[in-house]
Amino acid sequence: MKMYRVEDKYDCTVQEMVQLQHRLSMALRADDNEEDAKGYQVASLYFDDLADSCLNATKEGSDRRCKYRIRIYNGSFETIKLEVKEKKGSRIWKKSRRITEGEMRQLICGQCIQAYPAPEDPAFLFNAAIQTRLLRPKVAVAYERKAYIYDPGNVRITFDRSVRASRQVMDFGVREMVYDALPGQDAVLEIKYDELLPKFIQQLLELESMRQTAYSKYQLCRERYEATPVSQYLF
Predict the structure, then answer these.
(1) Among 60, 98, 120, 191, whose Cα sits 20 to 30 Å from the Cα of 88?
(2) Is 9:213 a contact under the CB 8 Å cutoff?
(3) Are the C-beta atoms of residues 221 and 165 closer than 8 Å to each other?
């Protein structure tokens, strides 16, 4: 049975981000991925099919949509996560597992990897999309993240800033990758939890004064290059 979580996103100015982080640091613990007080870096490689089904579903605001991605932290291949994220309204279902660098390179080249024959395994979902829809890498996304955890209710609060995009999909994760900054607003607050967000966290965040958004890093980074032909998307 799929266990969906709530995911809410809010526009956040730099000033608001600093104030909210100060409040949350008094009550919640920091994410284990942190390198220092500023947080950590996330880099994700997003995949889509020939029809750009994932991108178009996001643009159209479809009630149900999926994202396929590979994720690393702090520019290291020590932990490589393969993830499939399904969204239904404001709720998400995400399946994640670790893969090796070799498996990552196979997927980037459009090759299937070993998987369990079950939809709970993201590798199985990736393989199916590669074989039936020609799933391929489309854009790399990097940003800085500060995250807080409240274990009861599985609450996770993240502040993402300095979102950047790259078309060097075949070189994902290497230090020589070039990322391009996005114009305009690039800071967002994301709140994820299982059922109910504790009242004291709502009070710390003052959510009633913030504007909810449908912010999508994948969509914004794809749109950054929409006017430019990209030969490396062709395999």
Answers:
(1) 98
(2) yes
(3) yes
- The closest alpha carbon to 75, from 144, 126, 139, belongs to 144
Which residue type, as a one-letter code, is found at position 83?
Answer: E
Contact 89, 4 (CB under 8 A): no
pTM, two decimal places: 0.91
- What is the DSSP annotation of the chain? ----EEEEEEE--HHHHHHHHHHHHTTSEEPTT-SBTTBEEEEEEEEE-TT-HHHHHHHTT-SEEEEEEEEEETTEEEEEEEEEEEEETTEEEEEEEE--HHHHHHHHTT------SSTTSHHHHHHHHHHHH--EEEEEEEEEEEEEEETTTTEEEEEEEEEEEES-GGGTT-TT---EEPSS---EEEEEESS---HHHHHHHTGGGS-B----HHHHHHHTTTTS--GGG--
Structural contact between residues 83 and 71, judged by C-beta atoms closer than 8 angstroms? yes
Answer whether residue 16 shows pLDDT above 80.
Answer: yes
